[in-house]
Specification:
Blueprint (H helix, E strand, L loop, with lengths): L3 H9 L7 E5 L12 E2 L9 E2 L3 E4 L1 H5 L4 E8 L13 E5 L11 E4 L3 E6 L2 E6 L10 E2 L10 E3 L7 H9 L4 E5 L4 E6 L3 E2 L10 E2 L2 H11 L4 E6 L3 H14 L2 E5 L10 H7 L3 E5 L3 E2 L5 E4 L5 E5 L3 H20 L6 E5 L3 E2 L5 E10 L5 E5 L16 E5 L5 E2 L4 E6 L7
Parallel strand pairs: 5-6, 13-16, 13-17, 14-15, 17-21, 19-24, 22-25
Antiparallel strand pairs: 1-12, 2-11, 3-10, 4-6, 4-7, 5-9, 8-9, 18-20, 20-21, 22-28, 23-27, 24-25, 24-26, 26-28
Helix pairs in contact: 5-6
Amino acid sequence: MISVEEAKNIINLQTAEWGQSKLALADSIGEVLAEDISADRDFPPFDRVTMDGIALNFDAFASGNRRFKIQDIQLAGAPPLALQGTDSAIEIMTGAVLSQGCDLVIRYEDLEFTEHNGQKWVTIGLESADRWKNVHRQASDQPAGTLLISAGVTITAAEVAIMATVGKSQVLVNKKPKIAIVSTGDELVDVASIPMSHQIRKSNSIAIQSTLNQLNVPCTLYHLLDDKPALLVAVADLLDSYDILLLSGGVSKGKADYLPEVLEELGVKKLFHKVAQRPGKPFWFGSKPSGSQVFAFPGNPISTYMCFRVYFLPWLLDNLGYVNPQREAVLMEDFSFKLDLGYFLQVRVEYNNNGSMQAYPETGNGSGDLANLAQSDGFLYLPAGQVDFKSGRSYEFYSFALSNFA
């Protein structure tokens, strides 16, 4: 039996890559970018007007002239007009290309318009203005060729907007693994079924699937009965078809817990079996020379979810390139645990005025008390080697909420 820290190290040493794939830009949010994105032209690509008003020649304004003849109207999206004389001005709209011969824009709020003999005139109510006022100069943000987004970034709407601007209709992202989620046990029935008195509905596999669905990781559910010959055939097929197997149940010391021997007979190298922790001590982990990773979790609901959340999910996020910062929370009540095991305490979390997390124990009735998950926000890891854990100390916190760790 190994420690929690040893188990994490062994898992983290098993690095994996699943290649890259191209997605339509609109479907890329939440994925990890696998290519650098550079500006294909200047940002902005032209001298861009930032206020509705008039465009004119700065030197004419600086010479003291405040009354100009309106020559034309320049709209956004149209080719630039050319100023025909320094005594003229062009009405111009926000987003338009600055008219040729102009280097000053005065907003409508500072103007007064009149008309005489069919000619429109404008009088400027400003005494002073700077050259290029209300003009967003070409390349003033970024010149063409500048690196805008580096590979490895998790794509948000901001990155999508930038990539759209540079013409990336498709984007290269880190490919996600194919995962088989396998529940085992003769006692389990489908969620929609009405269980008999000796049966229970599947919950572990559904909880795992829903989390992976939120990350857009392709996964498929399977259920296998406690029959060794059947397990050998089914697991062999799954190992050939998937990058990762997540198994729930069948790894302890029960008479029908065949999975450890099945996996080893199928050539999966055991890297550890049993971790000095509560819950989840029978946790089994191994890999196949072909690269398949196998995480076999104990079948009790809290044990399965804890091992999935603490061990598998951080490993997956790291290998996909997501930023996965470790968080801590302050234990707010004294707590004692007499066994020399790492303990993953279910806690309810509140935030103080400084934004720090404060953790309150929600112990429940052991690793089978699935309903108690609803009273908790995550697991607080209390390391082995001590019995009494005092209020006010900070410990590693593993949130149930995907938004808090991905």
